[in-house]
Design a protein that fits this description.
With about 450 residues, this protein is of the alpha+beta class. The protein is about 35% helix and about 25% strand. Strands 17-14-16-15-19-20-18-21 form an eight-stranded antiparallel beta sheet. It has a five-stranded antiparallel beta sheet with strand order 7-8-12-10-11. It has a four-stranded mixed beta sheet with strand order 1-4-6-5.
Length: about 450
Amino acid sequence: MTDTYARTTTSAWRNWAGNVTVRPARAVTPASVDELAEVLRRASEDGLKVKPVGTGHSFTATAATDGVLIRPDLLTGIRDIDRTAMTVTVEAGTPLKRLNLALAREGLSLTNMGDIMEQTVAGATSTGTHGTGRDSASISAQIRALELVTADGTVLRCSEAENPDVFAVARLGLGALGVITAITFAVEPVFLLTAREEPMTFDRVTADFDRLFTENEHFEFYWFPHTGNCNTKRNNRSAGPAAPPGRIGAWVDDELLSNGIFQVACSLGRAVPATIPSIARLSSRALSARTYTDIPYKVFTSPRRVRFMEMEYALPREIAVEALREVKAMIDRSPLRISFPVEVRTAPADDIALSTASGRESAYIAVHLYRGTPYQAYFTAVERIMTAHGGRPHWGKIHTRDAAYLAGVYPRFGEFTAVRDRLDPDRLFGNDYLRRVLGD
Protein backbone atom coordinates (compact mmCIF):
# COMPACT_ATOMS: atom_id res chain seq x y z
CA MET A 1 0.00 0.00 0.00
CA THR A 2 3.02 2.33 0.05
CA ASP A 3 2.57 3.09 -3.62
CA THR A 4 -1.12 3.85 -3.28
CA TYR A 5 -0.73 6.31 -0.45
CA ALA A 6 2.25 7.92 -2.15
CA ARG A 7 -0.45 9.15 -4.53
CA THR A 8 -2.50 10.65 -1.72
CA THR A 9 -3.19 14.40 -1.55
CA THR A 10 -5.29 16.69 0.63
CA SER A 11 -5.87 19.65 -1.72
CA ALA A 12 -9.30 21.11 -2.40
CA TRP A 13 -11.44 19.72 -5.23
CA ARG A 14 -13.74 21.91 -7.33
CA ASN A 15 -16.25 20.94 -10.01
CA TRP A 16 -16.24 22.31 -13.58
CA ALA A 17 -18.86 24.98 -12.92
CA GLY A 18 -17.14 26.10 -9.72
CA ASN A 19 -20.26 25.86 -7.56
CA VAL A 20 -19.07 22.84 -5.53
CA THR A 21 -15.80 22.92 -3.57
CA VAL A 22 -14.65 20.37 -0.98
CA ARG A 23 -11.48 19.66 0.91
CA PRO A 24 -11.34 15.90 1.51
CA ALA A 25 -9.32 14.37 4.33
CA ARG A 26 -7.38 12.66 1.58
CA ALA A 27 -7.65 12.20 -2.17
CA VAL A 28 -6.36 8.88 -3.42
CA THR A 29 -5.46 7.73 -6.92
CA PRO A 30 -5.40 3.91 -6.92
CA ALA A 31 -3.72 2.17 -9.84
CA SER A 32 -5.58 -1.14 -9.67
CA VAL A 33 -8.76 -2.76 -8.45
CA ASP A 34 -6.86 -4.39 -5.57
CA GLU A 35 -5.47 -1.01 -4.46
CA LEU A 36 -8.96 0.48 -4.62
CA ALA A 37 -10.40 -2.32 -2.49
CA GLU A 38 -7.69 -1.66 0.13
CA VAL A 39 -8.47 2.08 0.05
CA LEU A 40 -12.12 1.28 0.85
CA ARG A 41 -11.20 -1.03 3.68
CA ARG A 42 -8.86 1.53 5.22
CA ALA A 43 -11.43 4.33 4.90
CA SER A 44 -14.02 2.19 6.65
CA GLU A 45 -11.56 1.46 9.48
CA ASP A 46 -10.84 5.19 9.81
CA GLY A 47 -14.54 6.11 9.87
CA LEU A 48 -14.31 8.15 6.68
CA LYS A 49 -16.87 8.39 3.89
CA VAL A 50 -15.71 7.66 0.34
CA LYS A 51 -16.73 9.23 -2.97
CA PRO A 52 -15.37 8.54 -6.44
CA VAL A 53 -15.05 11.60 -8.65
CA GLY A 54 -14.74 12.03 -12.42
CA THR A 55 -13.93 15.27 -14.20
CA GLY A 56 -16.42 17.31 -12.20
CA HIS A 57 -18.96 17.99 -14.93
CA SER A 58 -21.89 17.47 -12.56
CA PHE A 59 -23.45 20.62 -11.17
CA THR A 60 -24.66 18.83 -8.03
CA ALA A 61 -22.61 17.70 -5.04
CA THR A 62 -23.04 14.03 -5.90
CA ALA A 63 -19.26 13.46 -5.64
CA ALA A 64 -18.60 15.78 -2.69
CA THR A 65 -16.99 14.43 0.47
CA ASP A 66 -14.87 15.53 3.40
CA GLY A 67 -13.61 11.96 3.68
CA VAL A 68 -11.72 10.04 1.01
CA LEU A 69 -12.00 11.31 -2.58
CA ILE A 70 -11.07 8.68 -5.14
CA ARG A 71 -9.57 10.03 -8.33
CA PRO A 72 -9.69 7.62 -11.31
CA ASP A 73 -6.72 9.06 -13.22
CA LEU A 74 -4.79 5.75 -13.20
CA LEU A 75 -7.80 3.52 -13.91
CA THR A 76 -7.89 4.29 -17.62
CA GLY A 77 -7.62 2.56 -20.95
CA ILE A 78 -9.30 -0.20 -22.91
CA ARG A 79 -9.17 -3.67 -21.36
CA ASP A 80 -10.71 -5.61 -24.20
CA ILE A 81 -12.48 -5.35 -27.55
CA ASP A 82 -14.70 -8.31 -28.39
CA ARG A 83 -15.58 -8.18 -32.07
CA THR A 84 -17.79 -11.25 -31.79
CA ALA A 85 -19.96 -9.82 -29.04
CA MET A 86 -19.38 -6.29 -30.38
CA THR A 87 -18.41 -4.87 -27.01
CA VAL A 88 -15.58 -2.84 -25.56
CA THR A 89 -14.51 -3.05 -21.91
CA VAL A 90 -12.91 0.12 -20.62
CA GLU A 91 -11.47 1.26 -17.29
CA ALA A 92 -13.83 3.54 -15.39
CA GLY A 93 -11.61 6.63 -15.36
CA THR A 94 -11.22 6.78 -19.13
CA PRO A 95 -12.49 10.07 -20.56
CA LEU A 96 -15.17 9.68 -23.21
CA LYS A 97 -12.94 11.61 -25.61
CA ARG A 98 -10.18 9.02 -25.34
CA LEU A 99 -12.69 6.20 -25.73
CA ASN A 100 -14.23 7.76 -28.84
CA LEU A 101 -10.84 8.32 -30.45
CA ALA A 102 -9.68 4.79 -29.64
CA LEU A 103 -12.89 3.24 -30.98
CA ALA A 104 -12.66 5.25 -34.19
CA ARG A 105 -9.12 3.95 -34.76
CA GLU A 106 -10.55 0.43 -34.42
CA GLY A 107 -13.39 1.17 -36.84
CA LEU A 108 -15.98 1.12 -34.05
CA SER A 109 -18.36 3.55 -32.35
CA LEU A 110 -20.90 3.94 -29.60
CA THR A 111 -24.43 4.21 -30.99
CA ASN A 112 -25.30 7.49 -29.30
CA MET A 113 -23.62 10.00 -27.02
CA GLY A 114 -24.04 13.38 -25.37
CA ASP A 115 -22.87 16.70 -26.75
CA ILE A 116 -19.60 16.87 -24.81
CA MET A 117 -17.00 14.19 -24.18
CA GLU A 118 -14.86 15.49 -21.34
CA GLN A 119 -16.45 13.24 -18.68
CA THR A 120 -15.08 9.90 -17.54
CA VAL A 121 -17.11 6.88 -18.61
CA ALA A 122 -18.07 6.09 -15.00
CA GLY A 123 -18.98 9.68 -14.19
CA ALA A 124 -21.09 10.06 -17.32
CA THR A 125 -23.03 6.84 -16.83
CA SER A 126 -23.44 7.21 -13.05
CA THR A 127 -25.30 10.50 -13.48
CA GLY A 128 -27.31 9.60 -16.60
CA THR A 129 -25.53 11.57 -19.32
CA HIS A 130 -27.50 11.40 -22.57
CA GLY A 131 -27.74 12.88 -26.01
CA THR A 132 -30.83 12.91 -28.16
CA GLY A 133 -32.37 10.00 -30.02
CA ARG A 134 -35.61 8.59 -31.36
CA ASP A 135 -34.50 4.97 -31.00
CA SER A 136 -31.07 5.03 -29.31
CA ALA A 137 -30.82 5.89 -25.63
CA SER A 138 -28.35 7.24 -23.08
CA ILE A 139 -24.78 6.11 -22.57
CA SER A 140 -25.89 4.13 -19.50
CA ALA A 141 -28.36 2.19 -21.65
CA GLN A 142 -25.47 1.03 -23.84
CA ILE A 143 -23.78 -0.75 -20.91
CA ARG A 144 -23.63 -4.54 -21.21
CA ALA A 145 -21.63 -5.28 -18.05
CA LEU A 146 -19.77 -3.48 -15.28
CA GLU A 147 -17.31 -4.16 -12.48
CA LEU A 148 -18.15 -2.69 -9.07
CA VAL A 149 -16.12 -2.64 -5.86
CA THR A 150 -18.51 -2.59 -2.91
CA ALA A 151 -18.13 -1.17 0.58
CA ASP A 152 -16.50 -4.30 2.01
CA GLY A 153 -13.95 -4.52 -0.83
CA THR A 154 -15.81 -7.22 -2.77
CA VAL A 155 -15.43 -7.02 -6.55
CA LEU A 156 -18.80 -7.65 -8.22
CA ARG A 157 -19.11 -8.34 -11.94
CA CYS A 158 -22.59 -7.40 -13.06
CA SER A 159 -24.56 -8.10 -16.23
CA GLU A 160 -27.92 -9.52 -17.21
CA ALA A 161 -26.45 -12.97 -16.48
CA GLU A 162 -24.29 -12.19 -13.42
CA ASN A 163 -25.67 -10.30 -10.41
CA PRO A 164 -28.60 -9.12 -12.55
CA ASP A 165 -30.34 -7.37 -9.65
CA VAL A 166 -27.33 -5.12 -9.16
CA PHE A 167 -26.90 -4.63 -12.90
CA ALA A 168 -30.50 -3.43 -13.17
CA VAL A 169 -29.73 -0.45 -10.94
CA ALA A 170 -25.95 0.10 -11.10
CA ARG A 171 -25.82 1.29 -14.71
CA LEU A 172 -26.96 4.60 -13.24
CA GLY A 173 -25.84 4.32 -9.65
CA LEU A 174 -25.00 7.87 -8.49
CA GLY A 175 -21.85 6.53 -6.83
CA ALA A 176 -24.16 5.21 -4.09
CA LEU A 177 -23.61 1.48 -4.57
CA GLY A 178 -19.83 1.24 -4.79
CA VAL A 179 -16.96 2.32 -7.01
CA ILE A 180 -17.23 1.32 -10.67
CA THR A 181 -13.85 0.16 -11.99
CA ALA A 182 -14.71 -1.02 -15.50
CA ILE A 183 -17.61 -0.80 -17.94
CA THR A 184 -18.46 -2.95 -20.97
CA PHE A 185 -20.30 -1.03 -23.67
CA ALA A 186 -22.09 -2.28 -26.76
CA VAL A 187 -20.42 -0.94 -29.89
CA GLU A 188 -21.03 -1.17 -33.62
CA PRO A 189 -19.00 -0.65 -36.78
CA VAL A 190 -18.27 3.03 -37.21
CA PHE A 191 -20.85 4.78 -39.37
CA LEU A 192 -21.49 8.19 -40.86
CA LEU A 193 -24.01 10.76 -39.72
CA THR A 194 -25.26 13.66 -41.78
CA ALA A 195 -26.02 16.68 -39.64
CA ARG A 196 -28.40 19.37 -40.85
CA GLU A 197 -28.35 22.51 -38.74
CA GLU A 198 -31.02 25.06 -39.58
CA PRO A 199 -32.60 28.14 -37.98
CA MET A 200 -36.34 27.80 -37.43
CA THR A 201 -38.99 29.82 -35.63
CA PHE A 202 -40.22 28.77 -32.22
CA ASP A 203 -43.79 28.48 -33.51
CA ARG A 204 -42.76 26.22 -36.37
CA VAL A 205 -40.57 23.95 -34.23
CA THR A 206 -43.22 23.47 -31.59
CA ALA A 207 -46.00 22.94 -34.15
CA ASP A 208 -43.90 20.39 -36.07
CA PHE A 209 -42.11 18.81 -33.11
CA ASP A 210 -43.77 15.39 -33.43
CA ARG A 211 -42.99 15.22 -37.15
CA LEU A 212 -39.40 16.38 -36.69
CA PHE A 213 -38.94 13.79 -33.93
CA THR A 214 -40.49 10.98 -35.97
CA GLU A 215 -38.65 11.69 -39.21
CA ASN A 216 -35.16 11.94 -37.73
CA GLU A 217 -32.98 9.52 -35.80
CA HIS A 218 -31.64 12.37 -33.67
CA PHE A 219 -33.41 15.70 -33.37
CA GLU A 220 -32.72 18.58 -30.98
CA PHE A 221 -33.23 22.29 -30.90
CA TYR A 222 -32.26 25.39 -28.96
CA TRP A 223 -34.70 28.22 -28.30
CA PHE A 224 -33.30 31.68 -27.55
CA PRO A 225 -35.36 33.37 -24.81
CA HIS A 226 -36.64 36.87 -25.59
CA THR A 227 -36.91 35.85 -29.26
CA GLY A 228 -39.09 33.67 -31.44
CA ASN A 229 -36.00 31.99 -32.90
CA CYS A 230 -34.53 28.51 -32.61
CA ASN A 231 -31.61 26.59 -34.02
CA THR A 232 -32.40 22.99 -34.94
CA LYS A 233 -30.13 19.99 -35.54
CA ARG A 234 -31.08 16.76 -37.30
CA ASN A 235 -28.61 13.85 -37.37
CA ASN A 236 -29.29 10.82 -39.54
CA ARG A 237 -27.20 7.90 -40.73
CA SER A 238 -25.69 8.35 -44.13
CA ALA A 239 -24.18 6.17 -46.84
CA GLY A 240 -21.58 8.88 -47.33
CA PRO A 241 -19.21 10.03 -48.53
CA ALA A 242 -17.83 11.88 -45.53
CA ALA A 243 -18.06 15.63 -45.97
CA PRO A 244 -16.90 17.28 -42.74
CA PRO A 245 -17.23 21.03 -42.25
CA GLY A 246 -14.45 23.05 -43.81
CA ARG A 247 -11.70 23.96 -41.35
CA ILE A 248 -12.34 27.70 -41.52
CA GLY A 249 -16.12 27.37 -41.46
CA ALA A 250 -15.98 24.98 -38.52
CA TRP A 251 -13.71 27.32 -36.60
CA VAL A 252 -16.02 30.26 -37.23
CA ASP A 253 -19.16 28.39 -36.16
CA ASP A 254 -17.84 26.19 -33.34
CA GLU A 255 -15.10 28.33 -31.83
CA LEU A 256 -15.49 31.99 -32.83
CA LEU A 257 -19.29 32.25 -32.65
CA SER A 258 -20.33 29.44 -30.28
CA ASN A 259 -17.52 30.00 -27.80
CA GLY A 260 -15.49 33.19 -28.29
CA ILE A 261 -18.13 35.75 -29.20
CA PHE A 262 -20.75 33.96 -27.08
CA GLN A 263 -18.42 34.30 -24.06
CA VAL A 264 -18.14 38.05 -24.66
CA ALA A 265 -21.92 38.35 -25.11
CA CYS A 266 -22.58 36.46 -21.87
CA SER A 267 -20.10 38.63 -19.97
CA LEU A 268 -21.77 41.78 -21.29
CA GLY A 269 -25.20 40.44 -20.42
CA ARG A 270 -24.12 39.61 -16.88
CA ALA A 271 -22.71 43.11 -16.42
CA VAL A 272 -25.65 44.90 -18.09
CA PRO A 273 -28.75 42.63 -18.01
CA ALA A 274 -30.83 45.15 -20.01
CA THR A 275 -28.74 44.29 -23.08
CA ILE A 276 -29.64 40.59 -23.02
CA PRO A 277 -32.78 40.68 -25.22
CA SER A 278 -30.89 42.55 -27.95
CA ILE A 279 -27.93 40.19 -27.65
CA ALA A 280 -30.29 37.21 -27.84
CA ARG A 281 -31.82 38.49 -31.08
CA LEU A 282 -28.34 38.87 -32.59
CA SER A 283 -27.12 35.50 -31.26
CA SER A 284 -30.16 33.65 -32.59
CA ARG A 285 -29.38 34.86 -36.09
CA ALA A 286 -25.61 34.42 -35.98
CA LEU A 287 -25.45 30.75 -36.99
CA SER A 288 -26.55 30.00 -40.54
CA ALA A 289 -27.79 26.71 -41.96
CA ARG A 290 -25.17 24.09 -42.72
CA THR A 291 -25.00 20.39 -43.61
CA TYR A 292 -22.04 18.08 -43.06
CA THR A 293 -21.29 14.34 -42.81
CA ASP A 294 -18.78 12.71 -40.48
CA ILE A 295 -18.23 9.86 -37.99
CA PRO A 296 -20.49 9.93 -34.91
CA TYR A 297 -18.41 11.60 -32.20
CA LYS A 298 -17.50 14.44 -34.55
CA VAL A 299 -21.20 15.07 -35.20
CA PHE A 300 -22.71 14.43 -31.77
CA THR A 301 -20.16 16.38 -29.73
CA SER A 302 -18.80 19.90 -29.82
CA PRO A 303 -16.53 22.05 -27.62
CA ARG A 304 -18.19 23.84 -24.70
CA ARG A 305 -15.79 26.44 -23.33
CA VAL A 306 -18.29 28.95 -21.91
CA ARG A 307 -18.98 27.89 -18.34
CA PHE A 308 -22.53 27.93 -17.03
CA MET A 309 -25.00 26.57 -14.49
CA GLU A 310 -27.64 24.12 -15.68
CA MET A 311 -30.89 22.47 -14.67
CA GLU A 312 -32.58 19.81 -16.82
CA TYR A 313 -35.80 17.87 -16.44
CA ALA A 314 -37.10 14.82 -18.29
CA LEU A 315 -40.80 14.84 -19.13
CA PRO A 316 -43.10 12.41 -20.93
CA ARG A 317 -42.40 13.28 -24.57
CA GLU A 318 -46.02 14.00 -25.41
CA ILE A 319 -46.20 16.94 -22.99
CA ALA A 320 -42.81 18.52 -23.70
CA VAL A 321 -44.10 21.17 -26.10
CA GLU A 322 -46.81 22.24 -23.67
CA ALA A 323 -44.23 22.57 -20.89
CA LEU A 324 -41.82 24.50 -23.12
CA ARG A 325 -44.58 26.94 -24.08
CA GLU A 326 -45.24 27.45 -20.38
CA VAL A 327 -41.55 28.22 -19.84
CA LYS A 328 -41.63 30.75 -22.69
CA ALA A 329 -44.77 32.41 -21.32
CA MET A 330 -43.22 32.59 -17.85
CA ILE A 331 -40.08 34.29 -19.18
CA ASP A 332 -42.07 36.67 -21.40
CA ARG A 333 -44.14 37.97 -18.48
CA SER A 334 -41.29 38.09 -15.95
CA PRO A 335 -38.44 40.56 -15.40
CA LEU A 336 -35.94 37.73 -15.94
CA ARG A 337 -33.20 38.27 -18.51
CA ILE A 338 -31.94 34.94 -19.88
CA SER A 339 -28.70 34.93 -21.85
CA PHE A 340 -28.48 31.19 -22.63
CA PRO A 341 -30.67 29.21 -25.03
CA VAL A 342 -33.04 26.51 -23.77
CA GLU A 343 -32.14 23.04 -25.06
CA VAL A 344 -34.68 20.33 -26.01
CA ARG A 345 -33.73 16.69 -26.68
CA THR A 346 -35.43 13.28 -26.62
CA ALA A 347 -34.83 9.68 -25.54
CA PRO A 348 -36.66 6.36 -25.90
CA ALA A 349 -37.79 4.49 -22.80
CA ASP A 350 -35.17 2.29 -21.14
CA ASP A 351 -35.10 -0.31 -18.35
CA ILE A 352 -32.70 1.28 -15.83
CA ALA A 353 -34.27 1.90 -12.43
CA LEU A 354 -33.17 5.53 -11.94
CA SER A 355 -32.75 6.56 -15.56
CA THR A 356 -34.63 9.74 -16.33
CA ALA A 357 -36.16 7.79 -19.25
CA SER A 358 -36.96 4.71 -17.16
CA GLY A 359 -40.13 3.14 -18.49
CA ARG A 360 -41.25 6.14 -20.54
CA GLU A 361 -40.41 7.87 -23.80
CA SER A 362 -38.98 11.18 -22.73
CA ALA A 363 -38.09 14.68 -23.79
CA TYR A 364 -35.58 16.85 -21.96
CA ILE A 365 -35.82 20.57 -21.32
CA ALA A 366 -32.55 22.09 -20.12
CA VAL A 367 -32.07 25.66 -18.93
CA HIS A 368 -28.74 27.38 -18.39
CA LEU A 369 -27.30 30.63 -17.11
CA TYR A 370 -23.80 32.01 -17.48
CA ARG A 371 -21.58 31.18 -14.51
CA GLY A 372 -21.66 33.98 -11.94
CA THR A 373 -25.20 35.03 -12.86
CA PRO A 374 -27.82 34.55 -10.09
CA TYR A 375 -29.80 31.54 -11.28
CA GLN A 376 -32.14 30.69 -8.39
CA ALA A 377 -35.20 32.72 -9.48
CA TYR A 378 -35.08 31.39 -13.05
CA PHE A 379 -34.42 27.78 -12.11
CA THR A 380 -37.08 27.82 -9.40
CA ALA A 381 -39.70 29.12 -11.82
CA VAL A 382 -38.80 26.52 -14.45
CA GLU A 383 -38.67 23.74 -11.87
CA ARG A 384 -42.18 24.60 -10.74
CA ILE A 385 -43.40 23.99 -14.30
CA MET A 386 -41.41 20.77 -14.69
CA THR A 387 -42.61 19.21 -11.44
CA ALA A 388 -46.22 20.08 -12.25
CA HIS A 389 -45.82 17.71 -15.21
CA GLY A 390 -44.17 14.89 -13.22
CA GLY A 391 -40.67 15.82 -14.39
CA ARG A 392 -37.58 13.90 -13.36
CA PRO A 393 -34.48 16.03 -12.70
CA HIS A 394 -31.15 15.12 -14.25
CA TRP A 395 -29.10 13.62 -11.43
CA GLY A 396 -26.01 15.66 -12.24
CA LYS A 397 -27.71 19.03 -12.69
CA ILE A 398 -29.12 21.54 -10.26
CA HIS A 399 -32.51 20.75 -8.73
CA THR A 400 -34.22 20.89 -5.34
CA ARG A 401 -36.10 17.56 -5.33
CA ASP A 402 -35.88 15.10 -2.44
CA ALA A 403 -36.44 11.39 -1.93
CA ALA A 404 -40.15 11.80 -1.23
CA TYR A 405 -40.72 13.50 -4.59
CA LEU A 406 -38.39 11.20 -6.52
CA ALA A 407 -39.99 8.04 -5.13
CA GLY A 408 -43.25 9.28 -6.64
CA VAL A 409 -41.89 9.77 -10.18
CA TYR A 410 -39.68 6.66 -10.30
CA PRO A 411 -41.76 3.46 -10.02
CA ARG A 412 -38.56 1.45 -9.37
CA PHE A 413 -37.11 3.81 -6.77
CA GLY A 414 -37.54 1.22 -4.01
CA GLU A 415 -35.72 -1.37 -6.09
CA PHE A 416 -32.67 0.89 -6.18
CA THR A 417 -32.71 1.73 -2.47
CA ALA A 418 -33.11 -1.95 -1.55
CA VAL A 419 -29.93 -2.84 -3.44
CA ARG A 420 -28.18 0.10 -1.83
CA ASP A 421 -29.25 -1.07 1.63
CA ARG A 422 -27.74 -4.48 0.88
CA LEU A 423 -24.48 -3.30 -0.67
CA ASP A 424 -23.78 -0.27 1.53
CA PRO A 425 -25.77 -0.58 4.77
CA ASP A 426 -23.37 1.70 6.65
CA ARG A 427 -23.42 4.36 3.90
CA LEU A 428 -19.68 4.35 3.24
CA PHE A 429 -20.53 6.07 -0.06
CA GLY A 430 -23.05 8.49 1.40
CA ASN A 431 -23.02 12.28 1.43
CA ASP A 432 -25.50 15.10 1.88
CA TYR A 433 -26.70 15.04 -1.72
CA LEU A 434 -27.45 11.31 -1.65
CA ARG A 435 -29.15 11.69 1.72
CA ARG A 436 -31.49 14.25 0.15
CA VAL A 437 -32.29 12.39 -3.06
CA LEU A 438 -32.27 8.78 -1.81
CA GLY A 439 -33.17 9.11 1.86
CA ASP A 440 -31.22 7.34 4.57
